[in-house]
Specification:
Elements (H helix, E strand, L loop, with lengths): L11 E2 L1 H10 L10 E6 L6 E4 L4 E7 L6 E8 L2 E8 L9 E7 L12 E11 L6 E2 L13 E6 L11 E5 L13 E5 L11 E2 L15 E3 L5 E5 L5 E5 L9 E4 L10 E7 L6 E6 L8 E5 L12 E4 L13 E4 L5 E4 L12 E4 L4 H4 L9 E3 L8 E6 L5 E6 L2 E2 L3 E2 L2 E6 L5 E4 L9 H4 L1 E2 L9 E6 L5 E5 L4 E6 L4 E6 L4 E4 L7 E7 L2 E7 L6 E6 L10 E6 L4 E5 L6 E6 L1
Parallel strand pairs: 3-37
Antiparallel strand pairs: 1-32, 2-4, 4-7, 5-6, 5-8, 8-36, 8-37, 9-35, 10-11, 11-12, 12-13, 14-15, 15-16, 16-17, 18-19, 19-20, 20-21, 22-23, 23-24, 24-25, 26-27, 27-30, 28-29, 30-31, 33-34, 34-35, 38-39, 39-42, 40-41, 40-43
Length: 562
């Protein structure tokens, strides 16, 4: 059985007026700021340049860095050049920024040959309270009927900071947010480089249930749920490419093994564990976990029941969504829709330890937040990376329309309410004023939430049809290291191209394409070691040739033209 949904049959957006509003909107000026999508000379792969050549560094800031940006060129852990950019200056603005490094160190001398990495620290002076840092009028924040949102928190991924939003019903226009599938957005709300939308090769039903919840695993996979079939889950890469799609979880369509309305993932690789909430109205088993199989899938018939319905205090209905912190503590929400229901709660349960529980599921909650009309209709829950805060999303109660919807933030340890982001708070925009009839900007239907790596909260408000990001109070700074490195070659000689193949118990390193009088094979235990620290192994005067090696320990090799 599925749940009552609010169909906005009277909601029609004036498409032209909406586009004009998007195009003229001003961005927010405050943020928990960080850099993502860092590119070196326009790409994310390692590059090689001649000594003294300039290098272009570009990056996206999710918001202006009011306290400035510091870019460091590193040789190993040592900074050879530091570029400081003041707040409100070019290079510290929201969106894409570009800075040129001239290949010199802090003494204005060309850096010597070697490998160099790039780090970018963005800083903000902060502010007093939780602050909305996105604009509802931005085209990338628009989404017609979304049910899931997730953010990539893996700083070692090219998709770091990417926001994934799933739209479950066709909208009236032709924006990405009107299409059924997954929106892919950079941290500033702009479209991803390869395009801002993908269906991943799946013909989603577009029936308000598919796509449903979205989560990104620690190893960078994007998991998307189809709730029409009681909890089918598909896995993709960060581009949501059809070639990467894997059907990882298939619940029986009769609901006999659960009605899995929300999920989260813990661990990575062969240690990945899927946690899911069973929203069967009368037969819910509560929260279960499923261990990944060698092929990357999960067996829907092999779940272990972890938290059951029936505790006091505890769940007395069914869980609708689930989240875990790094310590394994379990968070969930119940979803009654009737006004005055005493079971409208958000709950926390201890980390599950089968050895102390005798293998039985937990029943008793650490804390319960609620009840209240503004705790009705629980739809999503997410805990921040440090385990400090928990965000819970509510549609409120249904009296012909959903009322008292909101997103709350709690202290994770105690369940104490920290703030309410939008209960009766007005957020006027083109989405509300251009609707026919106009929508109440103080009315909200909050559906799902997730956190980025630096502590910003992202959530869906299904009433106007948008996602928002909020930043916590206080000064802040975050450092991101580029995935690609810069190899500086001595002089202006062209570097040799090398190819390594196994040969007679060792390896053959062949080279070609270099320019110089001779070619030297160098080795080092560290790829980031300064050029002076690389040991010369052999020399060859031929323009194309090979070297034979038989390494006894792990080592790095390069061919240098002289």
């Amino acid at each position: 059985m599925k749940f009552q949904k609010y169909l906005r049959s009277t909601r029609v957006i004036g498409g032209l007026a909406l586009v004009l509003t998007f195009a003229t909107a001003a961005p927010s000026a405050r943020a928990n700021v960080y850099a993502s999508n860092i590119k070196i000379n326009g790409g994310m792969t390692n590059i090689s340049v001649a000594q003294g050549a300039s290098v272009t560094i570009s990056y996206i800031l999710n918001e202006p860095a009011s306290s400035g940006v510091t870019i460091k060129i590193l040789s190993g852990a040592a900074a050879v050049r530091t570029i400081r950019i003041g707040g409100e200056s070019a290079g510290a603005t929201r969106g894409t920024n570009t800075v040129v490094w001239n290949g010199r160190n802090d003494s204005s001398n060309n850096v010597p040959g070697g490998n160099y990495s790039v780090s970018i620290q963005a800083a903000s002076s902060g502010y007093a309270g939780w602050t909305k840092i996105t604009d509802d009028n931005n085209p990338g924040n628009y989404t017609w009927e979304s049910r899931g949102i997730a953010v990539d928190r893996n700083a070692n991924s090219p998709y770091y900071g990417r926001v994934f939003v799933g739209n479950s019903h066709f909208g009236p226009g032709s924006l990405n947010g009107d299409l059924v599938g997954i929106q892919k957005l950079n941290a500033d709300g702009s479209a991803a480089d390869e395009g801002g939308f993908s269906d991943g090769g799946i013909s989603w039903r577009g029936d308000y249930y598919a796509p449903w919840k979205i989560r990104v695993s620690e190893d960078d996979y994007v998991y998307v749920e189809d709730w029409y079939d009681y909890g089918d889950i598909y896995r993709f890469d960060g581009a949501i490419s059809s070639a990467s799609m894997l059907h990882v979880f298939a619940a029986p369509t009769d609901g006999s093994l659960g009605n899995w309305s929300g999920f989260c993932l813990v661990g990575k690789g062969t240690n990945t564990v899927l946690w899911a909430a069973d929203a069967n109205l009368s037969t819910s088993v509560g929260v279960s976990k499923f261990f990944v199989k060698p092929d990357g899938t999960f067996d829907a018939s092999a779940g272990s029941n972890v938290v059951a319905v029936g505790g006091s205090p505890g769940m007395d209905l069914y869980p609708f969504a689930v989240a875990l912190d790094q310590a394994g503590t379990i968070y969930t929400v119940q979803s009654p829709s009737d006004q005055g229901n005493p079971s409208a709660w958000a709950l926390r349960f201890p980390a599950y330890d089968p050895s102390t529980n005798g293998g039985a599921p937990e029943l008793t909650a650490d804390w319960v937040a609620g009840p209240g009309d503004d705790y009705c209709g629980g739809k999503g829950i997410a805990v921040n990376p440090t385990g400090t805060y928990v965000a819970a999303c509510f549609w409120g109660y249904n009296s012909g329309e959903w009322l008292s919807g909101n997103t709350k933030i709690f202290e994770a340890a105690t369940g104490t309410l920290v703030t309410n982001l939008d209960l009766d708070v007005s957020y006027p925009s083109g989405l509300t004023s251009n609707s026919i009839p106009p929508l109440d900007p103080a009315h909200h239907m909050d559906t799902d939430a997730d956190w980025d790596a630096v502590g910003n909260l992202y959530y869906l408000d299904n009433w106007p049809g948008c996602w928002r990001a909020f930043s916590p109070p206080g000064t802040n700074q975050a450092t991101t290291v580029a995935l690609s490195t810069v190899q500086v070659t001595d002089g202006s000689l062209a570097p040799a191209r090398i190819h390594i193949t196994p040969s007679g118990g060792g390896y053959s390193i062949s080279y070609s394409g270099g320019a110089g009088a001779q070619f030297v094979l160098l080795t080092s235990p560290s790829v980031n070691a300064p050029m002076a620290g690389w040991l010369r192994v052999a020399t060859n005067a031929a323009a194309s040739g090979s070297f034979s090696i038989t390494p006894s320990t792990r080592a790095f090799y390069r061919v240098k033209s002289e």
